[in-house]
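Explain my protein.
***
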Amino acid sequence: MIRQLAVLAATAALLGSFVGAQARWQHQSSSVSQVPPPTGSSQQTACLAADFDRDDRDDFLIASRGSGGRIEVWLSSYGSGWTRSLVEASNVQPEAGGAVHDIDGDGDLDVVLGQDSAGYELYWWENPYPSFGNAWQRRLIRRNSATKHHDQVFGDVDGDGQAELVTWNQGARALVLFEIPKLPKQAGAWTGTTIYQAANSGSEGLAIADVDLDGKVDIVGGGCWWKHSTGTKFAVQVVDSSMRFTRAAVGQIVTGGRPELVFAPGDLNGNAYWYRWSGTAWVRTLLTAAWHSHTLDVADINLDGHADVLLGEMKAGRTKCQLAVFYGDGRGGLKKSLLAEGNGIHEGRLGDLDGDGDLDLVHKPYNDRAPRVDLWLNETIPPSLALPWRTHLAAAKLPTQAVFVCAGDLDGDGRIDLTAGDAWYRNPGALSKPFERKPFAAPLYGAALVHDFDGDGDLDVFGTRGRGSNPSSDFAWAENDGTGRFTVHTNIQSSRGDFLQGVLAVRLASDDAPLQIAMSWHANGGGVQLMSIPAKPDTQQWTWKMASTTTQAEDLSAVDLDGDGDQDLVLGTIWLESPTFAAHTLGVVNDLKGVRAGPPLPDRNSAVDLDGDGDPDIVVGLENGREVVWFENPGPKRVKGRWQRHILGIVPGEGFSMDTGDFDADGDPDVIVGEHRGKSVNRVLLFENRGAFGTWPVRTLDRQPVSTIDHHDGTLPVDLDGDGDLDIASIGWFNPKLWALENPLRQPGASRAKAPMIGGWGRTFRLWRVVQVIPADHSGEVRFTTDGTDPTKNSPLYREPFPVGMTTLVKARTFVAGKDPSTVTRAVFARIRDDYAAWRFDGPVQSWSIDDGPRRLVGHNRATRQVPGLFGQALEFRGKGERVEVQGFAMTSPAVSLSAWIRPDGFSHLSAQDGRVFSTATGFLESQHALMLSTIGTAQGPRLRVRLRTGSSTATLIAGTGTLSVGVWYHAAATYDGSDLRLFLDGAEVGRVGRSGSVSISASTPTWIGDNPPAGGRSFHGLIDAVRLFDRALHPLELEALARDGSMPGVQRFGISTRSSNNARALFLDVARAPEANQGGIGFSCVHAPPSGVGVLMLSDLAIPLGFKLGGAFVYVVPRPELFTVLLSTPAGDCQTVVPLVRGLRGLRLNAQAVWAHAPSQMFPLRASDALKLQLR
């Protein structure tokens, strides 16, 4: 677990309530026997923190020199603290610094240290993992011509895809780079290249970071940074020539733009400074006065999403030397918090020493009361998971091994019971009590699935007649009388296979299709099988057929991947397309390194919308692999091709138990994994979904010895205690027991009221908007606010819709007696009617794009094509020079905003991934741009970029967060208010840099949409819709509203967009939020309707796949739908309505469409929205 030094404040917006909080610490020290003491000399020089034993917790290493000098490592030992072992028994005169890297490629971390002023040599030690009783073998890297090697670092600094070793050789006044040999154990001395010759021997400090955000990491140290140019040549960039003899660190102290650099005097008294790039120079800011501050680092220590600064002083500077953390706020504010005073700190290192997901600190002195080591355990954990989970033993010992644990209320008492093997286990109500075992009658010995097979309203049980892994392809099912009394039947056709590994109840063709059971066998099954449930399950024979001979012999999931309305089957990295069951490979995992011999294999899988873009992604846990991976759905047009794979996290104990669920109740799915084959312990790990930023903080929910617990086909998300949050039921194979892990998010007996909906989720308007709040819990009352504060019981009571005429943030909350208040629902309504220019691409002429703003600027479409977009039509750019040439654009203003909807379809056609969305420029260079919005490749993937000229110079800002994906619609925006240039992605700020001066753009400077003038070469690949310019800085609330003008997550469109008539934009129908079956109704919103008109909302569970034409409008809903609702539009051309729902229709699919009379036009008497396809959750 090597922590990268470049820390991005990606999750700041998601953890706003935790900003500024100080971490809580627990101090341990060898001086009071809480940690095994070092046994080396009193001159302790080096300290490193890294996961040397691959148990997902960082260990630490301390080196000392002089008489008795040695190198020792402390390995974390579950339940018994630390185990100290020897790395090097002899005194090799190690200098401060050192670095870790998997030098020999065997999967564990090796160590590099150099000699001090008494030696000429640089060494590496081979990690003996897993046999730490064996010696760490020391090998020579190189014997140099001069002494002293203070500081080393590894990183791919030349962009060749392989890490290099960079070291100072102070005696030679040189910064030296080493390529790692292909066979380092046999290579002998490595070849080194001096990449920088210092003026004196005082340069120190090294860090690695992508300083200029060009996608390649750079070297930072000694008051400078080095950028690779070609071959082994690096260009030095001096930041502060007075900071040569310093420690160095890098981090995102200010959100957005380049990372900030920090330098502090390590062996002198002076000042510590941090440096921010202004666009033209590094601006220095005082951090603090510092005395021999030999410990310096930048990281998010308190988990608020912002970078903090760690600074520790030696006693050589002052007696009351300090250890302090400066907590950042993401805006450049750093608040000092003192941890200790008078304890000399030398070479402190951050690392997750206790495996709880936050950064701890290990440090030692140089010679102050040495030998000694101190630990500071950070007790900050993600705020949404602030309480410890409780683990309960539900069944101490099963009679035999059982493959599955299943859940459901089997006796009708309202509590969720469990099944495993040959019995069901009655929930006692309090999870601290054991579950009562209730055996099934023979021959049902392998319960595999709980479902209402006979349709009588209670849950039955299906399984095999085999115990554990004993081969059996004979079946039985237990018919429930509703009270937990079962009659076992065997009227099921025998199949083939040894024991089940995947089983689920499905209705493949539609919600009304016959019920079937999909089955996947461990071996000898021949493929994926489908068992059909007859109309009379208790008397008629159940029969099976082979659906596909393709199998991955593991878990199964069912989901509509291709958007055609039926359920497809996911096997792991392969999916079967209904109804033909054609096999499609979405990705691979066999390129990853196996834990044992052979490659990893997919084991458990879950189909879930992990990234919140409205389509299902696939999460996969691995057998013989340490990674948990997820595959990102590329969208319906590319779903049959390869999907982008992401590494979600690392699980050393493998992924035999994996599932997904919203464990922290924040609205997105998290991932849970139970270890089956841990080395000494098996854990349950929760990977917390932090939304669009792609970060996955890991939380250990349970950790026990392998002799006590393991998880095999377990970690099932289910509310066992009835308190409204997801607990976990799990089962072991090596340890056949049932477990219940209790989520502390809500306490048993309490419940939370359901949050209301706010019609439209925001949106923009020109005149006014009527706001409608839709209750979800009719037993309570809804309170609301319009001043941005959270509603309380004393806030205004919502009684009826109300108008807003200015930009307003509306918040609503449900209050029910005896329940916790609901979560707060928010919606922004923004009045925006002052576009400087706006191109919506909805005009009837393909060759022209007309500006809807007051200036009516004409755009010539060059090879672009109109296609359905988010708002009627969009323009398609294929990355081959297509563009819109805007005529006569000019602006003189103290401020500016640029907004556009984009759907990238590719980035790789440009080496820098820098496709232009909007560009006013005379060339490619920064100085040749007046205004530009584009994408750009970074080390983290494609992101947004903006350029703006104010005065006589142009500034460039690259988004610090928010990686872009192919096939996803994004709202991209940039604003400038005279003091800050800011970037926004989907309404959230992703970058900011200080800037001053006025905007002055001449009409003589060409302006293009989709490429860079005047010669092209930076063409965008994808769709662009609704490009808007303003001669003011839009407020963040206005940008949030603009971002909500797009489609809703969870709502899919189908069919062909209705062509607009008479230059009017097409109707746009949307819902208030993804519909839920237990809410009182669905709130619909329709915009761009004829002003003050009458329309009809049609709602049906049926639709015509290709549609038909009626009065000039394409209609997709059947001519006689279930429900008509009259729509009345405002003078602004929008409206809202609520369609009441009958409760209990979970899973029902609905089709909705708005059709509008367009009087007095006779040529186009009707207009229609796209059809919406919804499913009740």
Observations:
- DSSP finds one helix and 93 strands in the chain.
